Amino acid sequence: MSAPRVVAVDGPAAAGKGTLARRLAAELGLPYLDTGLLYRAVGRRVLDRGGDPRDATTAAAEARALTAADLERKDLRTPEADMASSAVAVIPEVRAALLDWQRDFGRRHGAVMDGRDIGTVIFPDAPAKLFVTASPAARAKRRWLELQGKGVTRDLAEVEAEMAARDAQDAQRATAPMKPAPDAVVLDTTDLDAAAAFAAALDLVRARMPA
Ligand code: CDP
Ligand code: CDP
User: Fold this and answer.
1) Fewest CB within 10 angstroms: 27, 80, 81, 108, which?
2) What is the homologous superfamily of the domain 6-206 according to CATH?
3) Measured from the CB, is residue 77 less than 6 Å from ligand 2?
C-alpha cells in the first residue's frame, strides 16, 4: 500500500503543535486531527463516572465507548482533564481502542495529525514528520498566556510544574512513549513565533511530501 498523505506533528505540551498543524492543514488542503482530544475525552468520561483514570479496566471501557459528541465537550482543557488524559494514555488497552479510528481518519483523505505517537506508532510510514518542541519555560509561558486569554489566572510556576509532570509521564510510559521518530525533523520553537515555525515546517513538508 502506498504511504498515506499524512503529516505527523508530535511533541510535548504547549509546544505549538496544534497551532502549527492547523495552519499546515489549511495550507495543504488536508483534514486536521487533534489526537490529544481523544485522550482528554476518555479521561473526562472516567472522571464523570467518579472513576480513577489510572484504572485500566474502567479507562479501556470508556475508550471503547467514546463518541463524536465527547470530542465536542467544552471541559477538555482543564488542569483536571490534562492530568486525566495523561493517566489514561499510559494504559495500552486505551491506546489500542483508539488506534484504528486514528488510522482510518488519516488514510481516508490524508491528514495533518498532532499528538505524541503519530510518527512513531500511528503512521510510522508518514512521509513528513515533525517533532515540535520548546524550552519548558517557554511552553509554560505559552500555556499560561492562553489561560489568561480565557480569563483564567494561574500561578506560572504551578503551570510549569504540572506540565513537567505530564511530559515526564508521557515520555516514560512503556507503550507509545513521546519521542521523535528516527526520521522526524525536530523543530525547536523556543525563539520562533507561530509564523516563523509555520514557515520552517512548510518548507520541510514540501520537501518530504511533493504535491
Ligand atoms: O498543541 P500544543 O499544546 O502543542 O500548543 P498550541 O495550543 O498550539 O500552542 C500554545 C500557544 O503557543 C498558542 O497560544 C500559540 O499561539 C503559541 N505559540 C505557538 O503556537 N507557536 C510558537 N512558535 C509560539 C507561540
Ligand atoms: O495540548 P497539549 O499538548 O497540552 O496536550 P494534548 O495534545 O491535548 O494531549 C493530552 C494528553 O494526551 C497528553 O499529555 C498525552 O498523555 C496524551 N496523548 C497521547 O498519549 N498520544 C497522543 N497521540 C496525543 C495525546
Assistant:
1) 108
2) P-loop containing nucleotide triphosphate hydrolases (3.40.50.300)
3) no
